[in-house]
Amino acid sequence: MRKLFTPVLIGMLALVSAYTDVLSQGTITTPRNPSPAASVSQSVGISTVSVAYSRPSVKGREIWGKIVPYGWTVQGFGAQREAPWRAGANENTVIEFSHDANVQGKTVPAGSYGLFFVINEDNSGEVVLSKDYRAWGSFWYDPDRDQLRAPITVRENSMTELLTYEFINMDKTSAELVLNWEKKQFPVKITFAVDDIVMANAREELKNTRGFTSQGYASAANYALQNKTNLEEGLRWIDQAIATSRSFATLNTKAGILTAMGKEEEGKKLIDEALSIATEIELNNYGYQLLGQGNHDEAIRILTMNTTRYPKSANVWDSLGEAYALKGDEKNAIKNFKKSLSMNPTENVRLNSEKYLKQFGAL
User: Fold this and answer.
1) What is the pairing mode between strands 174-191 and 101-103?
2) Could you give the CA distance from residue 152 to residue 180 in angstroms, rounded to a whole number?
3) Do the Cβ atoms of 222 and 233 come closer than 8 Å?
4) Which regions of the chain carry the CATH code 1.25.40.10?
């Protein structure tokens, strides 16, 4: 009799479970209360960090030490072991990295992780990343599944009613992910090896359709130049671009790479060749590039060359006037701005020339 009862009971439970699933699938979607779902993401270089979480409210409650216990605590369900705070409500808060990252000084492979925090009474704390990102809260937390544990210092902050994640203190390679709730802020520094990631991505993209164009190789080489990284590889790329497009842009990039590698004479020869085939716009842009670098004399030489080649262009005289103005040579600046205005310039050129002349009291 006992042997017969067990399979029947199991079968009944299976039917009940299946019926419950059907009922669940048949219900409409309704708002998730009281802790609505949210997500936030941030690009760093060409990498992305995203966080998906649920947002509990303070609602006048005592949060730290009460709603969120201090230290590591047993949840009273599931795995029955000490666990960190799930850093939100409902399911695990999930953080995802599109590329390998450095989190609080430690390497974390690309992928998704459960995000947890610990706060102590003295505002010391920890950030924990777990490979079990699909679990519910901290109930089944398993320390053997940790990818990372790192210390943090919790900050005092302005009042935040709804738990909120955001990214602050951005720079080229990093961002600080912060959790703000009540009057506390939990900071986590996230850094990417941006140049390495861009270069690795360029190698893969150049194996595809971008590798059939000179623009693909030129853009990869230009990134190497602008960021002073992988210059030898950048030189190979720009040579491939020049093989199909010997232009001012490609020659100028190669000249820059050679100069950055300490081969100034080779670079100078190439820039001279590049200048000999440059268009009016290319010469003008190059002149402004030199002005941006503070190289006023060379910028004036290039922009003077442009007035010689394109003497009927009001814009080139206006640009030369601006170069003299930035150098502090008022006399030559006024002379070139007046030349520009005498040639019936377009409105934007006219306004620029007039602006400087008014500053000099010459209009």
Assistant:
1) antiparallel
2) 14
3) no
4) 195-359
Q: What is the pLDDT of residue 30?
A: 75
Distance (Å, whole) CA 186 – CA 153? 7
Cβ 301 vs Cβ 321: under 8 Å: no
3-state secondary structure of 204: helix
Angle at 336 between CA 331 and CA 340, to 5 degrees: 150
Contact 165, 51 (CB under 8 A): yes
Q: What are phi and psi of 47, to 5 degrees?
A: -95, 160
Nearest alpha-carbon partner for 352 in 324, 318, 307, 329: 318
Whole-number pLDDT of residue 10: 32
- Please tell me whether residue 84 adopts helix, strand or coil conformation: coil
pLDDT value of residue 20: 45
Q: Distance between terminal CA atoms of the chain?
A: 110
| Range 195-359 has CATH code 3.40.50.10490 | no
Q: What is the pLDDT of residue 78?
A: 67
Q: 326: Cβ–Cβ under 8 A, 6 or more apart, which residues?
A: 291, 296
- Single-letter amino acid, residue 217: Y
Distance in angstroms (rounded) separating the CA atoms of residues 187 and 40: 15
Of 25, 215, 180, nearest to 87 by C-alpha is 180
What's the pTM?
0.83
The tokens for 118 are: 């610990």
The token duo for 273 is 């060749």
HSE-up of residue 126 (Cα within 13 Å, Cβ side):
16
Which regions of the chain are under pLDDT 50? 1-24
**Contact by Cβ (8 Å): 101, 176:** no
pLDDT score of 16: 40
Residue 221 Cα distances to 3, 28, 175, 229, angstroms: 75, 54, 26, 10
The pLDDT value recorded for residue 79 is 64
